[in-house]
Amino acid sequence: MLDAFAAPGRFWRGNLHGHSNRSDGALSPEEVCATYRAAGYDFTCVTDHFRPNYDFPITDTTQCRTDGFTTLIGAELHAPDTSRGEHWHILSVGLPFDFAPPAEDETGPELARRARDAGAFIAIAHPHWYQLQAEDGLALDAAHAVELYNHTSQVNCDRGDGIVFYDDMLMHGLRLTAIATDDSHFKADDAFGGWVMVKAEENTPEALLAALKAGRMYASQGPEIHDITREGDELVITCSPAATIALLGPVSMNARQHGRNLTRARLPLTKFLGSWARVAVTDASGRRAWTSPLWLDL
Q1: Percent of the chain surpassing pLDDT 70
Q2: Secondary structure, 3-state, 219-240
Q3: Are 167 and 248 in a shared domain?
Q4: Does 178 share its domain with 191?
Q5: pTM tops 0.70
Q6: Can you name the residues that pair with 264 across neighbouring β-strands?
Q7: Structural domain boundaries enclosing 105
Q8: Can you give the CATH number for the domain in which 11 is found?
């Protein structure tokens, strides 16, 4: 958590999960990129479904890069089978164009390991949407992150929130980071609802991917987290105007401050020592921002 704010550079806003008409999206890759660029995003990643019926696309958006806007290359990978009998949905950002389709007997965890070995940032996509279980998260040992929020899952079926699954993974000791995404298809109003703010010195694919792997980011639906520092056994958070600034940890552990237009909070870490704590900021409209956890067990 603290590294994301202490690292050199600035925060860049981007969407890591979205689809074009190369798979099941409504817009062309060029239109997707132009839409995010016009909305003020610094980068996006078109992650079309890596399935045989779409001819295993790894969508090339390099031609959409400009001086102020860049793209990452990725895909949403699939293989059988989760514990509930669903095909895996594995977000893979930073894939090489020559990444091979899955072998007939390749499992989801094996596919994720191969993608990570190829240089990709791996995230567990929309865990609530298809009811991933703890055993699934533990099996997907190549993952860097969990989608704490997936906007299209919220828009289409009220299952966008991955927080319970994420906290369960943290309780099992997995040091996963948190992201928010749109998973946009542009067939409904499913864009601009969740994003990542990535801290890097340059808005380039290489710098962004390195920062994602290092955990130098936070997730948001709107609120901005400007800085987080540790002063002894207190955490000092500064942010855009908020109604609640909270620390959440194992089981029911929490510390919080409520108010109107809060832009700063000083919260005690004492009860979290020996475990972990993550920050959640909620604004007056109920929109949230989240950090990955600060591990306090060393």
Answers
A1: 100
A2: EECCCCEEEEEEECCEEEEEEE
A3: no
A4: yes
A5: yes
A6: 238
A7: 2-220
A8: 3.20.20.140
Convert the pLDDT of each residue in 87-139 to its tens digit.
999 999 999 999 999 999 999 999 999 999 999 999 999 999 999 999 999 99
Name the amino acid, one letter, at 147. E
- For the stretch 248-281, pLDDT in tens is 999 999 999 999 999 999 999 999 999 999 999 9
Q: Which two tokens stand for residue 142?
A: 């190549």
Number of domains in the chain: 2
Same domain membership, residue 233 and residue 136 = no
Distance in angstroms (rounded) separating the CA atoms of residues 165 and 178: 11
